[in-house]
Amino acid sequence: MHPREQTIFALSSGRPPSAIAIVRVSGPQAGAALAALAGRVPQPRLATRMLLHDGQGQGIDDAIVLWFPAPASATGEDVAEFHIHGSRAVETALFAALGSIEHVRPAEPGEFTRRAFENGKLDLTEAEALDDLIHADTDRQRRQALRQLRGLLGEKARDWRARIIEAQALIEAGIDFSDEGDVPAELIAPALAKIEALHGEIREVLSSQSRSERLRDGLTVAIAGPPNVGKSTLINLLARREVAIVSPHAGTTRDVIEVHLDLDGYPVTVIDTAGIRDTEDAVEQEGVRRARLRAAESDLVLWMPESEPEQSDVTPTGEAPVWVVRNKIDLEGGEQRAGAAIRPGEGGSPFRISANRGDGVSDLVSALAAFARDYFGSGEDAPIGRERQRRLLRETADALQRCLAVARRGDELAAEELRIGAQSLGRLLGRVDVEDVLDKIFREFCIGK
């Protein structure tokens, strides 16, 4: 029997121990497994209290059981759910009983969702959104994933694909009836009008979303500078716990330390890097190399200089903007001055903070949240949630543009470009030539989902 024809089971709730655990079974043997363990199959979609037994008649648990016959289930197959007490012993006994039934096996990561996709319960954009919803860390990530799961992009893509196919049919009809005088002209003109309008819609979506797909990964901010300027103290203050060693000795931080923050619902990863300086220590040299690399790869760099910075003191390289953060104002004895972010070559004052006392840090955090808001643009309201989706939409728009450009040179060329555009949208939805993409996406899911 092919693995996809077998019945699968897995824990679909949190790890034990817990008050209640949910074990899900999906496939053609789900009803037989339910009858074998509970003695009978209850009424569909009605929670029923039943005593579960293993193959030797030994009691497993007093559980709540649900039965969802195909196709009205989450996966489109027969599905049984066992709501059991969430101890390791109960789960182990239930898994052993299920595994002893012929053609019933433990599920692979993402296999339940993949079966739902293959049975038409959701398209690939919705499957990706489900994965994003499971892994959402902030409220904005959750809201974006939920909108995607409810078809924010999928519905648009299905409509766009249907309209491309409709225009393609008109052009191909013109090709088929090319000997009917003015018929081709009557067909091609409305087809090109549809394509032009559709091209404008897709281009508008592509141009207005900023970096919306980055919301799922978050913004990366590197704290960089020479040794002993307060980088580790600042990251501990931002994290509200000691994640970095704070020491008066230069070269204490030798690796990259990451802290994940939720700033006004935006996911931000702050990186504490090794102090950048010339050193003979081989281990510290590696730390400095990694620090320079991570600073160059970040979306924003907080550069903490040793003294009042000049433009020449800002050393990070890369395309990321640099904000100068002047620390230890508590040692200066002066009043805190209002700060503003600066970039190399621009005027303005650096942020002035005391990472030790917390002076000015709230202003820095507020500025980071504002930067994240501008960086992500429309963010959670955007149809595009992943780079894969943006790439395929761009391919579709390019195909439509080429179609408009070649329409006067030959109907066959225009029809071919429309076929390419429809195929790109089909790949976006997961309906055309995406087996390798499916394997990668569903492997990222947790077992039981």
Structural write-up:
The protein is of the alpha/beta class. The chain has helices at 30-38, 88-99, 111-118, 124-134, 139-149, 154-176, 183-208, 231-239, 282-297, 361-376, 387-406, 411-429, 435-443; strands at 7-11, 18-26, 48-53, 59-68, 79-86, 104-106, 219-224, 257-263, 266-272, 300-303, 322-326, 351-352. Helix 4 (124-134) packs antiparallel against helix 5, helix 6 runs antiparallel to helix 7 and helix 7 packs antiparallel against helix 11 (387-406). 42% of the residues are buried.
- How big a fraction of the residues is strand? 15-25%
Average pLDDT, to the nearest integer?
81
Q: How far apart are the first and last residues' alpha carbons, in Å?
A: 22 Å
How many β-strand stretches?
A: 12
How many helices does DSSP assign?
13
Strand order of the largest sheet: 3-4-5-2-1-6
Largest sheet: 6 strands, mixed
List SSEs in N-to-C order.
EEHEEEHEHHHHHEHEEHEEEHHHH
Shape: flat
How would you classify the helix and strand content by structural class?
alpha/beta
Indicate the low-confidence ranges by residue numbers. 243-254, 334-348
Radius of gyration: 29 Å
Helix content: 40-55%
